[in-house]
């Protein structure tokens, strides 16, 4: 009798239906040196420790989209201070990525806004893709 091999569950963390990479400590010296070489479209998530969260002990602080997620999820980001403050004095920061090769900014903003609406991250100010735009109305893109 043939028994198919059991595959391990995918590593990473999910927000809505989007699978992100396994959270990595942030900032990390190696990642900082690689960020100038790796360009990838997609979403990036900034997380902190939260033992009360299930199934993974992380809380989403910020979700963003970019043509270069590695370069954007960096200490030079304009929200880095608010991420640090939201994590608290003992909280660590992590980042995770969801690659969307060949995606348009509108496609990324749509997923980014859906995740913002579902998780309400503390450091995001407003949806980048307005619900009027989702319904075909005027003013679909808002500033961040």
Feature tags:
two-stranded antiparallel ribbon; 5 helices; 6 strands
Structure commentary:
With 144 residues, this protein is of the alpha+beta class. The N and C termini lie far apart (57 Å). The chain contains 5 helices and 6 strands. It has a domain of 88 residues. The strands form 2 sheets. Strands 3-6-4-5 form a 4-stranded antiparallel sheet, sandwiched between helices. Strands 1-2 form a two-stranded antiparallel sheet. The C terminus is likely disordered.
In short:
The chain has 144 residues and is α+β, with helices and mostly antiparallel strands. The chain is 26% helix and 23% strand. The chain has helices at residues 29-34, 69-72, 80-87, 105-119, 131-134, and strands at residues 13-15, 18-20, 24-26, 42-49, 58-66, 93-99.
Describe how the helices and strands are arranged.
Elements lengths: L12 E3 L2 E3 L3 E3 L2 H6 L7 E8 L8 E9 L2 H4 L7 H8 L5 E7 L5 H15 L11 H4 L10
Antiparallel strand pairs: 1-2, 3-6, 4-5, 4-6
Instruction: Quickly count the helices.
Output: 5
- Content-based structural category: alpha+beta
Helix fraction by DSSP (H/I, runs of at least 4): 25-40%
The biggest beta sheet reads: 4 strands, antiparallel
Query: What is the global morphology?
Result: globular
**Mean pLDDT across residues:** 82
C-alpha end-to-end distance: 57 Å
Strand content: 15-25%
Runs with pLDDT <50, length 5+?
A: 135-144
Order of helices and strands: EEEHEEHHEHH
- The counted number of beta strands is 6
Sequence of strands across the biggest β-sheet? 3-6-4-5
Question: If you compute it from the alpha carbons, what radius of gyration comes out, rounded to the nearest whole angstrom?
Answer: 16 Å
């Amino acid at each position: 009798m043939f028994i198919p091999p059991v595959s391990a569950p995918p590593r990473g963390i999910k927000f809505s239906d989007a699978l992100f990479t396994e959270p990595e400590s942030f900032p990390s010296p190696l990642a900082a040196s690689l960020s100038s070489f790796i360009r990838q479209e997609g979403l990036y998530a900034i997380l902190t420790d939260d033992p009360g969260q299930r199934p993974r002990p992380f809380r989403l602080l910020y979700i963003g989209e970019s043509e270069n997620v590695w370069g954007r999820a960096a200490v030079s980001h304009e929200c880095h201070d608010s991420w640090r403050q939201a994590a608290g004095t003992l909280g660590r920061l992590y980042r995770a990525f969801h690659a969307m090769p060949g995606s348009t900014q509108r496609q990324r903003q749509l997923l980014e806004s859906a995740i913002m609406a579902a998780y309400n991250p503390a450091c995001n100010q407003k949806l980048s893709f307005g619900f009027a735009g989702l319904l075909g109305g005027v003013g679909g893109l808002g500033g961040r």
